[in-house]
Amino acid sequence: MPYRDFTDHQLGETLLITESAQEKADVAAELFKRYCEKCDRRIRAVLQSRGLEYSDANTYYNTVFFEIYERIFEVEDLTRKLRSYRADRGVFERWLLQVVTLETIDWLRRVNPQTGISHALTFFPDSQKLF
Hints:
This protein has 6 helices and no strands. It has helices spanning 8-17, 21-49, 60-73, 75-82, 92-109, 119-123. The mean pLDDT is 84.
């Protein structure tokens, strides 16, 4: 199915009502494709606002991005999050970027149960300004 022709709202509705696991995965993949660059920028902005600067040499950035993307675009998580989206209250893109912001902040605050150290300190040990 040509999901690229669907509006964001139609994609969200499809994800919420379809029973097909493959269709759900395809819709989530389309949303990711549409918004991954904007999500990348938002994640970077949140990290940088906490004093966690990007560097090509720092492979931890990829770890952060992958973990946050999994929390947002994994089919069940995305479906659950979409239930809170209201088209009459705003633009899908703004809603999604707010979700990305909150997930990034939440990720920074999480503590690794094995080490007892926050994710932020694990990946950015020299950081002084985390919150």
